[in-house]
Specification:
Elements lengths: L5 H41 L3 H6 L12 H9 L2 H32 L5 H13 L6 H10 L7 H7 L4 H11 L4 H9 L4 H12 L1 H17 L2 H6 L23 H34 L3
Helix pairs in contact: 1-13, 3-13, 4-7, 4-8, 4-11, 8-13, 11-13
Length: 288
């Protein structure tokens, strides 16, 4: 019976590892290319003249770099108003969303009450059902509350708690000992004080993670602001792009420049905050 020497086994293992790593890097390279290819074309288009757009390839570099498209897009799209409205939506929604999500997870983890499983199941069902099927009902509710065409309509929608938040917060709260609650109650602390003075400070990693995810989600959302805030003075960064799209023709240079302006806050937030996203999710998934 033929046996393999230890040296040959080590070489074979190294070859397998090299092949596996090469395949992984190749796969991620292809995925990155697929993601970055449209962004690259958009970036080139933003700095092209109309002549270049008509007669040159989308992959060709601009014959002369035209920065006027960026200036025109910023003024025509009223980007300052878009930045202001987007900042209000992101700031207020993230604060409300974080407080509601953490409090909901705290109640579901620490308290035993009737219909607890039913309530948890309702969050799951709400995530499974496509929100387009309930849009008519939601629109009627917003209209009846008198919030249509105001910034309070999307604020009310964005402030809602979702399953992702509850799941991440629950992972963190399960790692916090119940003895902290019991010790605080012996000292006369109320549930309100226990949550905000003991539990919530320990949830800051999860809160930071969810705040970043929610911020990016709100900044990229065009559907809700466009439907519930149609007035021009209420435009956000995403809905400002509609100013560059016409029924018969569109200026793709200005549209591409506007897309780059809209993308910048999201890219900056992700580049500087990505470690908090991964660390928050990873820490919450590992029980201590």
């Amino acid at each position: 019976m033929k046996t393999t020497s230890p040296a040959a086994a080590i070489v074979k293992q190294k070859v397998r590892t090299t092949v596996s790593l090469t395949a992984v890097y190749l796969l991620f390279g292809i995925i990155s290319l697929i993601v970055l290819f449209p962004l690259g074309i958009t970036g080139l288009t933003a700095f092209k003249s109309k002549q270049d757009l008509l007669f040159s390839s989308p992959l060709a570099l601009p014959s002369t770099w035209q920065f006027v498209n960026v200036k025109t897009a910023f003024e025509k799209g009223n980007m300052l108003t878009g930045f202001k409205n987007t900042a209000i939506l992101v700031g207020v929604s993230v604060v409300l969303n974080t407080i509601l999500g953490s409090m909901t997870a705290y109640i579901l983890n620490r308290f035993q009450f009737r219909m607890k499983r039913v309530i948890m199941a309702m969050f799951v069902v709400a995530m499974v059902i496509p929100f387009y099927t309930t849009e008519v009902s939601r629109f009627q509710i917003i209209k009846a509350l008198g919030l249509y065409d105001s910034i309070f309509a999307p604020l009310l929608i964005y402030a809602g708690t979702d399953l992702l938040q509850i799941f991440i917060f629950l992972q963190f709260i399960e790692k916090i000992s119940n003895q902290l609650d019991e010790s605080a109650m012996i000292d006369g602390a109320s549930y309100f004080n226990i949550f905000f003075r003991i539990i919530f400070p320990l949830l800051l990693p999860a809160s930071a993670t969810l705040a970043i995810i929610k911020s990016v989600d709100i900044m990229n959302d065009m559907y809700i602001p466009y439907l519930y805030m149609p007035s021009k003075e209420l435009h956000t960064l995403s809905t400002a792009l509609m100013s560059f799209v016409g029924q018969r023709s569109s200026d793709y240079g200005q549209l591409s420049a506007a897309i780059l302006i809209v993308l910048m806050p999201t890219i900056v937030i992700y580049l500087f905050m990505q470690k908090f996203i991964f660390s928050g999710i990873t820490e919450g998934s590992i029980k201590g």
